[in-house]
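Predict both folds.
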Amino acid sequence: MELITHADIAAVASAFHQPRVLTHDLVGRLAESNAAARALRALGFRVTREDPFPNDGGHAILLVDLNGLPADRLLAECDASTIRAGGHITGLYRGIRIVVQEDLPC
């Protein structure tokens, strides 16, 4: 058996998630994103993806599945929202950006 030392192991940067130092600001962003996701789940929606640190540097983004519920129920909870042609819905919920893709009749 061979002993593995730290010198034998090379750090490999992830292509998906760049390394970050968890500062108070970043921990706060994670907490806000998680709180919004929990609240949406409690309302019956399904959060399919979370991006607490989007590349544009803006607020966190949650991708939401309506889970068979009406879009109006989600929009009533949002501070601001838009519905575009094709059913693309975006909104601001508790300071977190949400994105919904729903097949709405044209």
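Second protein follows, with its predicted structure tokens after the sequence.
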Amino acid sequence: VIDATEWSSPSVNEPVGFHKIAKYIIFPGVHQPGATQECEFNKAAWDKISARDQHLIELAGELRTFRAWRNHAYNDLFAYRRMAKGGNTMLRLEQSFIDAAQKAGNEWADKQIEGNAWFKKALNHQRKFQHDMSVYSKMRSGPGTRTAIGDVLK
């Protein structure tokens, strides 16, 4: 028996049984803020595929990613409720801890860009996207969204 766990999301943790061996469920996960879904092609092989088929493959990838995200988020809601009703104590990490983890991650990433132009380009692109989405998130946080999340999960 362990005191607490933060492994994945509720719908992934539940079938594994973490909620049965840990009283406390900690969220949000700070070690894995997102998952990568990819389908890789050899560039020469990709170039041989018609533009139409390339487009269809890209659309299939977008649809698969959307469905995976949607299903995962939906299943998480019900797993969270079952865990809470089953006697687990849900603990939200303190914002100061989340901020410290983000700061440490950013400091590590900043060190990686030294002498690595590709990483620097990718990191700058990622950070711009994160900034842009944080602005969007603040703009769209109305009734029924983040401001009401505590009530939604009950």
